[in-house]
């Protein structure tokens, strides 16, 4: 099982209470399920509005269960940002 780092930004970081944490997950869907299990409540709600980068590449509209994670990889959790 790949070991990945999930990094939280802005509202996701505030809701998680940490900037990043490790997870064992083979897909983005598995990683996000583990995040929701560890942080029920506000972070689970924030995740519904987030976009994600996997090792710097945007996930876009791909199904999270189809996005494979690499050992040592990084999942960036990006809530919508104000401004532009």
UniProtKB/TrEMBL annotation:
Q: According to its UniProt record, which protein family does this protein belong to?
A: Belongs to the MoaD family.
State the InterPro entries in the record. Beta-grasp_dom_sf (IPR012675), MOCS2A (IPR044672), Mopterin_synth/thiamin_S_b (IPR016155), ThiS/MoaD-like (IPR003749)
List the PANTHER family. Answer: MOLYBDOPTERIN SYNTHASE SULFUR CARRIER SUBUNIT (PTHR33359:SF1)
Q: Which organism is it from?
A: Streptomyces gilvifuscus
Which protein are we looking at? Molybdopterin synthase sulfur carrier subunit
Q: Which UniProt keywords apply?
A: Nucleotide-binding
């Amino acid at each position: 099982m790949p070991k990945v780092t999930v990094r939280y930004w802005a509202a996701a970081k505030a809701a998680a209470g940490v900037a990043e944490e490790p997870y064992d997950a083979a897909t983005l869907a598995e990683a996000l399920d583990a995040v929701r299990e560890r942080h029920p409540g506000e972070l689970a709600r924030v995740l519904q509005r987030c976009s994600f980068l996997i090792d710097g590449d945007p996930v876009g509209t791909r199904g999270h269960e189809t996005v494979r994670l690499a050992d040592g990889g990084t999942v960036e959790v990006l809530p919508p940002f104000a401004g532009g």
